[in-house]
Design goal:
By secondary structure, the protein is an alpha/beta fold. It is built from 14 helices and 14 strands. The radius of gyration is 21 Å and the shape is globular. The chain binds pyridoxal-5'-phosphate.
Length: 389
């Protein structure tokens, strides 16, 4: 017999494209850097393993690493310390630990549409109801505060936010952040702020965190993207001391503790890999410019410039839903992710990861242009989306 919980879940829509066989396809489907972890980080891992850091560690993470993470967040809230931090098995586990710590059965949780694929299933795993809020291209992928006011109810417990966003590449403006903080405060909501792309922003001025803006904020972050260590499974959660201590119970019962040698290496990365991270982000910026220009030269395609993360999320005016189009492109040798995998408002969009070489981007654009040229003209996708919503 299977639980109703598991029966209510599907595998992520992303996997439909990820697992489809096409070994030689040009790959713009993957949500991970094509870089290797910085040399100092790899060396630190080898050294840690050789010198015997191979045992279970403290459930909440190595104290030195928690201190270094707290230090990173003191720029937003000077009182942040180790007690606010739990090191997790990736941002994924931080998100699930947060959901299981914060949501009760029957609660509603506001989640972005389109949005990262885990927010909805995690709400369901906590027996809560996900309630999608819109991120529309014509609003620069900022949430609409009037819509949020309509969606909030006495059952609403939390709002999940993600800036920079996967899949849109949108970054919240200062005005949006102020608006969201007031909204959450007025309705007594917890904010779960997924900031795993905080270092990958292209506008000058740096990342704006929700940490320190409101006492009910839980920040989720990860080493996967900034240290290019997606396979090592290390992330973290920053929350009030009370919430962090409670989340640590869930975290302990799920995973016991995060990888010990991995944490030693991540600590070295936080201390010594600044230049590697900056070089990686500079390269992403150049690729961003290349792909946006290329996508906008494809007949029937329109792409707004992503301001963060490493995804372009263009719409298209061709025949067919996004899964159909993504499958047609895969048959021609280009792998991307169908926008609908991220929610109903992702329909008629495709997500292209530009965490791949410039040469790969150029080849992808060539193939897309050939595809676009063959398609008959259609209604503008924004008109179709308005109908779909
Ligand atoms: C927005 C967002 N949050 C969280 C994650 C989870 O990352 P990880 O579990 O590798 O830290 C991802 C991965 O793609 C992501 O894009």
């Amino acid at each position: 017999m299977l639980s109703s919980r598991v029966r209510s879940l599907e595998m992520s829509g992303i996997r439909k494209m990820f697992d489809a066989p096409a070994p030689n396809a040009i790959n713009l489907g993957l949500g991970e850097p094509d870089f290797n972890p910085p040399a100092v980080v790899k060396e630190a891992l080898f050294e840690a393993v050789r010198s015997g850091s191979n045992k279970y560690g403290p459930s909440a993470g190595l104290p030195e690493l928690r201190d270094a993470i707290a230090e990173r967040y003191r720029r937003y809230l000077p009182s942040t310390d180790r007690a606010n931090v739990i090191v997790t098995c990736g941002g994924t586990e931080a998100l699930l630990s947060a959901a299981l710590t914060l949501y009760d059965p029957g609660n509603e949780v506001l989640v972005p549409n389109p949005g990262f694929v885990l927010y909805t299933p995690h709400a369901r795993m906590a027996d809560a109801t996900p309630v999608p809020y819109s991120l529309r291209e014509e609003n620069g992928y900022q949430p609409d505060l009037d819509e949020l006011e309509e969606l909030v109810s006495p059952q609403t417990r939390a709002i999940v936010v993600n800036s920079p966003s996967n899949p849109t590449g949108g970054v919240f403006t200062a005005k949006t952040i102020d608006g969201l903080v007031s909204f959450a405060e007025n309705h007594g909501l917890t904010m779960v702020s997924d900031e795993v792309y905080d270092e990958i922003e292209y506008a000058p001025g740096g990342h704006r965190s929700f940490w320190g803006r409101y006492d009910r904020v839980v920040v989720v972050n990860s080493f996967s993207k900034i240290l290019a260590m997606t396979g090592w499974r290390l992330g973290y959660l920053v929350a009030s001391e009370e919430v962090a201590a409670e989340a640590n119970k869930i975290h302990y019962h799920m995973v016991a503790c995060p990888s010990t040698p991995g944490q030693v290496a991540a600590l070295r990365g936080l201390r010594e890999a600044r230049e590697d991270i900056q070089a990686m982000v500079r390269e992403f910026r150049a690729r961003r410019d290349l792909i946006v220009k290329g996508l906008n030269s494809v007949p029937g395609m329109h792409c707004v410039r992503p301001e963060g993360a490493f995804y372009a999320f263009p719409n298209y005016s061709w025949e067919g839903g996004s899964l159909e189009v993504a499958q047609a492109l895969l048959q021609r040798g280009l792998r991307c992710t169908h926008g609908e995998a991220f929610g109903s408002l992702g329909e008629y969009h495709l997500r292209f990861s530009f965490a791949c070489s410039r040469d790969t981007i150029r080849k992808a654009i060539q193939l897309l242009r050939a595809y676009g040229e063959e398609q008959p003209d259609r209604a503008r996708p924004t008109a179709r989306l308005a109908k779909a919503a």
